[in-house]
Amino acid sequence: MAAKICIAIRSFGRPLTENINWGLPPYTRKIALPESRVLYTVLRSPHVDKKSREQFEMNVKKQFLVINTETHELQKKFFWLKRQRIFGAQYELRFSCKTRLDKEKLQRLL
Which helix (H) or strand (E) holds 17? Predict the structure, then answer.
């Protein structure tokens, strides 16, 4: 049976390629998502010098990884992912498994 591990990574500081130094399996697909940039403007002194302002920016880089695996290897892959450290990034894991028999396999058995 086939299983998929989907990882959505959002990096805030350094480029995302620097954050991922760990070796990925060869059957991993990388999908780059659009980057976003947010600017914040803050008044230094709202009463005296209104024209004096500071600007801060936050760059968010996103990437989506899909790892295909078998269900009996799912525990090993999850343990491997838990041990990886991705500093300066948020990541979200999603697991999906195919649990039903295919119609073709069922017809072959009958």
Answer: helix 16-19
